[in-house]
Amino acid sequence: MTKTPDFTHATYRLVRCIGCDATVSVRRPQAGEYAQCPRCHQKLQSGSRWSLKRCSLIALSILILMPFALGYPLLSLDLLGTKIDASVWKGIWKMAVEGYSYTAFMIFICAVLMPVSFAILVIMLQLSKLLKIKPRNVLLFVGYIKPWVMFDVYLVALGVTMFKVREYATLEVDVYLIAFVFTALLTT
Prior knowledge:
By secondary structure, the chain is α+β, with helices and mostly antiparallel strands. Helix content is 52%, strand content 16%. It folds into 2 domains: 12-46, no CATH class; 52-187, no CATH class. The chain has 6 helices and 7 strands, in the order ββββαββααααβα. The chain has a 3-stranded antiparallel beta sheet. It has a two-stranded antiparallel sheet with strand order 1-2. A two-stranded antiparallel sheet has the order 3-4.
């Protein structure tokens, strides 16, 4: 009875170039190195310092900070004697009630649902690695969801709003804005 060889710790592996479709044998690059196709000089893979364990810890941090970043007021506006607390959830709800339901839905998808789903999928990748399960479907979902994670765009929009509104109203920054900024940075 012959035993199947275990190639999980092999130093060389076959990689297909996305530029010229050549199959190249490359060794696993170290941090700061990258493999290059000898035919078209396309970058094949790089030795990234970001391990899956580190990414899953960042994803867990995102999930911990997300309720504070979304549910609590980020800014307080004093407009003509009326105090308005601005949070992401209140903004989405206000847009939906005022007749901008499609815009509210897209903000919900891009600033709430997709970042949470992305963080959960990264944690699922780590769990599948620990349980020695092939995460093909999880990797497919990560590839589909990644372009829709736009929490950083919401941060830029908040900065522009803060700059524009300060001319018309008194603006107070709440402590939960820190959680929002850290969540946006970790998501990026």
